[in-house]
Write a structure and sequence with these properties.
By secondary structure, this protein is an alpha/beta fold. About 35% of the residues lie in helices and about 20% in strands. Helix 1 crosses helix 3.
């Protein structure tokens, strides 16, 4: 596949309701969609699963766009790609900036699979199957409000409920939910809101028989999590700490977690996601796919990735209608009885709606020739 043109579409999308975590509250989101076009006009799509602020990690939509424009696109434009597995190594000269790398790498995977008349999951080595869906719930104002939200989503058929927690909105909230719903797959996501000094406090969660507690300690920590896991019967799931295959390997060797959340953007793309998946499968560490408030483009990539065999825990892949006033794909991702079917067609199977794209557009930039805004190390 010869990359003829790369287009960056920066859009603004609105959430149906505010989404609150320990990082803050989000109502609107700026997204940079990456469109890769080959010499025959085949198009592939990826997106920056960033926020406007560097709270989840150091990347923002603005920094991702800068890295794409000045470093990553110059490396790939007018290049022949014989296998999308090549792209991760081609972009390795840039340190970190995994979300920016993922946005363009996933777009190439989409285009390459379309070029070869195959759905993406086939190239990834997955098996077509309905995907069990979980739901993530932001921090609520009271335990009672949380119970009301959980009741709604349990009734909708979601197979797993993830509850965001933070100091002051944790034990009493989880207790109330577990009392009302003793048998659901329930987990807590702390988004790095605690430290080891909170160990005795966090041990109170063991009584609720949670599926897991996600990333309770620092965003870049592996060692303290290994200490905490020895104190908890509740499995720890690592999210923000895992950026690479080596991060996952070290966490497993140290006993820092019993579950890993694989987010395509956080680890730099589909190739690294596959490598982490295979490592975890070898060590009998189940994985699942977390959400980063993606549009239908990023959500479709997530669905294809979760066809891999070790994705045994329902991911945060709720339908478009649960998040956005209007998605940017032609056909919304929908759920039936707690399952989502893989979109039909080649590539990710979800086509971007050009009308919706234009309505939400902030900026469009096209790159059609080789250039170098900065010297690229060789």
């Amino acid at each position: 596949m010869f990359i003829k043109e790369i287009v960056l579409h920066t859009i603004s999308v609105s959430l149906k309701s505010p989404f609150t975590t320990s990082f803050g509250t989000l109502q609107t989101k700026e997204v940079c969609l990456v469109e890769v076009i080959d010499e025959s006009g085949v198009t592939g799509w990826g997106e920056t699963v960033t926020s406007d602020e560097p709270y989840y990690n150091e990347e923002t939509t603005e920094t991702a766009r800068y890295i794409l424009k000045d470093f990553l696109i110059p490396k790939l434009i007018k290049k022949e790609i014989s296998d999308p597995m090549e792209v991760h190594q081609m972009l390795s000269f840039v340190r970190r900036h995994h979300i920016a790398k993922s946005a363009i790498e996933t777009a190439i995977w989409d285009a390459f699979s379309k070029k070869n008349n195959k759905p993406l999951y086939e190239l990834l080595g997955g098996e077509k199957k309905p995907i069990a869906v979980g739901k993530s719930i932001g921090i609520q104002n009271s335990p009672e409000e949380l119970v009301s939200k959980v009741a709604q989503y349990v009734n909708d058929g979601f197979h797993k409920i993830k509850v965001k927690i933070a100091p002051g909105a944790d034990i009493d909230y989880i207790r109330k939910v577990r009392k009302e719903f003793p048998d659901i797959n329930l987990m807590a996501d702390a988004n790095s809101a605690y430290s080891l000094k909170d160990t005795e406090h966090l041990k109170q969660l063991d009584q609720f028989h949670l599926l897991m507690i996600e990333q309770p300690l620092a965003h870049d920590d592996i060692i303290d999590h290994s200490i905490l896991q020895k104190e908890l019967s509740t499995p720890i799931c690592l999210d923000e700490s895992i950026h690479t295959y080596d991060d996952a390997r070290k966490a497993i060797e140290l006993g820092s977690c019993k579950i890993i959340n694989i987010k395509i953007g956080r680890v730099g793309g589909l190739q690294e996601s596959i490598r982490i998946h295979d490592l975890c499968k070898k060590h009998k560490i189940p994985v699942w796919c977390g959400g980063m408030l993606e549009t239908g483009v990023g959500r479709s990539h997530n669905l294809h990735m979760t066809t891999l065999s070790n994705f045994t825990i329902p991911g945060d892949t709720a339908p478009s209608s649960h998040y956005w006033d209007e998605d940017i794909i032609e056909e919304d991702i929908v759920m039936e009885k707690g399952y989502i079917r893989i979109p039909k067609g080649n590539g990710i199977g979800s086509e971007v709606c050009r009308t919706s794209l234009q309505e939400k557009l902030i900026q469009r930039e096209s790159f059609q020739s080789a250039y170098s805004a900065h010297p690229i190390p060789v």
